[in-house]
Amino acid sequence: MKLLFLSPNSEIGGAEAVLIEDMLALQAHHDIHVILPAEGTISKKLKGTKIIVHIVRFDWWIATHSLTFIQKIKFTRGYIISTLKIKKIITNISPDTLITNTIATPVAAIAAALASVKHIWYIHELGKEDHHLSFFFGEKKSYYLINKLSNRIITTSFLVQKKVAGYIPDNKIETIYCSVEIPNSEQFISAENPYKIALNSPLKLLITGRVGEGKRQEDAVKALEILIKKYDIPAQLTIVGDRGGEYSQQIKDYIQQNQLSAFVDFVQFTDNIYKYYQEADFVFICSRCEAFGRVTIEAMKLKKVVFASDAGANPELLGNNERGILYQMGDAEDLAQKVAQTMQHPIQLQQISQRAFEWSWQVCNTKTHLDNLLKTIQNA
């Protein structure tokens, strides 16, 4: 098959990592093209592969702010220009199916309709709940168009499917979990369950991902403080992720004001993230609302016990405490208490770790993901 994908971003994020994994796996037996809004880390990652990159600048139809009537007219003009450019690409390469890897823009979907090419919408985000993003033309009208401009819709979790099904017939939607590949995973997975031996002292805690309000690194920092000062548990927190801006500064100020600098390490985001998982006792997922949770699956695949907020897709992935520990989102006291209690029960830690490990590798693997993806594409 010849497949044409559209990515909403030129830089690698969670949804973009899924797209890259899909395209790299599919290129062996399929002709793969991708539309990007600009050159960036994605195009750099794809250099030397068989994947053909097309650059077309396009606007989103969601944002954290609303538009005036005049701005809507200007954006509509931009959509028309971008749509015609994408239609030209479709005409030139004649793909069997076009896949839009986001709800953020309708341009590829409209172009596919104009060119009479099958279109699949692959939705990785909730919008308002996870990123405070709202549709310029309203949620009801936008999902009406998403329905009309797609042969099938793929969602990244049942949480997302539940929201989409509020606007679109459920039989048109397919939830496909991401594969979440871990290169050279055998280097980072211990043969024995890591919780059969004593936990580190100080206890090693990890939170990874872009430092921002939605990821709520503040919960992790405050829980660390409570563990040290209230429970007298020596602990060290590593925060891995790109940082900058007002929220990041607030975190740093809190750390300094509460004499926590010696207990917190900041690490710029790195491709070699897995060594930090390997060193950690527990992984924190403190997000306000994750549509899926790539970091959660990474930790589970590496046999690490995850402590996650009871929001977004976390309860779904953790099986309501079967494969990890949930705490009340925004309540650092509850998080610290759950850590302090759970670390006293090594058998429970071993059981949670093993269940998470087995489930994540069984459900979130390349073969299962690609089989489901190709089946959906072929049946569109």
UniProtKB/TrEMBL annotation:
<dbReference type="Pfam" id="PF00534">
    <property type="entry name" value="Glycos_transf_1"/>
</dbReference>
<feature type="domain" description="Glycosyltransferase subfamily 4-like N-terminal">
    <location>
        <begin position="12"/>
        <end position="181"/>
    </location>
</feature>
<feature type="domain" description="Glycosyl transferase family 1">
    <location>
        <begin position="202"/>
        <end position="358"/>
    </location>
</feature>
<dbReference type="GO" id="GO:0009103">
    <property type="term" value="P:lipopolysaccharide biosynthetic process"/>
</dbReference>
<dbReference type="InterPro" id="IPR001296">
    <property type="entry name" value="Glyco_trans_1"/>
</dbReference>
<dbReference type="InterPro" id="IPR028098">
    <property type="entry name" value="Glyco_trans_4-like_N"/>
</dbReference>
<dbReference type="GO" id="GO:0016757">
    <property type="term" value="F:glycosyltransferase activity"/>
</dbReference>
<protein>
    <submittedName>
        <fullName>Glycosyltransferase involved in cell wall bisynthesis</fullName>
    </submittedName>
</protein>
<keyword id="KW-0808">Transferase</keyword>
<dbReference type="Pfam" id="PF13439">
    <property type="entry name" value="Glyco_transf_4"/>
</dbReference>
